Amino acid sequence: MCGRPAHRVLELRTALGIANLRQGRGDSTLAGAVADWRAYFGEEHDGTVAAREALAG
After folding, report:
1. 20, 9 in Cβ contact below 8 A?
2. In the prediction, which pLDDT does 2 show?
3. Are 26 and 20 in contact (CB under 8 A)?
4. Distance CA 22, CA 7 (A)
5. DSSP run (H or E) holding 40
6. Average pLDDT for residues 9-33, to the nearest whole number?
7. 3-class DSSP state for residue 54?
8. What is the DSSP letter of 23?
9. What value, to the nearest 5°, has the Cα angle with vertex 43 and ends 46 and 39?
10. Measured on CA atoms in the order 23, 24, 28, 34, is the torsion positive or negative?
11. How far is residue 42's CA from residue 40's CA, in Å, rounded to a whole number?
């Protein structure tokens, strides 16, 4: 992926990360999504907040 990831891509990565976490497959996908949400859309964006809260449990 070059440049800024599309909003929809981050939504899908967040959903995949949540599914992986619930299945006991670790949190690396979700943690990566949180980092990208923060980097590209900011700390207070709805996607950032939702992904961060999902990661926190």
Report:
1. no
2. 64
3. yes
4. 23
5. helix 28-41
6. 96
7. helix
8. T
9. 105
10. positive
11. 6
Q: What angle do CA 30, 27, 22 make, to 5 degrees?
A: 95
| 16 token code pair | 């995949």
- The whole-angstrom distance between residue 22's C-alpha and the CA centroid of its chain comes to 14
Average pLDDT over residues 37-56: 96
Tokens of 29: 């996908």
Residue 57 reports pLDDT greater than 90:
no
Q: Exposure of 28 by Cβ count < 10 A (0-12 exposed, 13-18 middle, 19+ buried)?
A: exposed
pLDDT of residue 28: 96
Q: Which helix (H) or strand (E) holds 52?
A: helix 46-56
pTM: 0.87
The upper half-sphere exposure of residue 8, i.e. CA atoms within 13 Å in the direction of its Cβ, equals 0
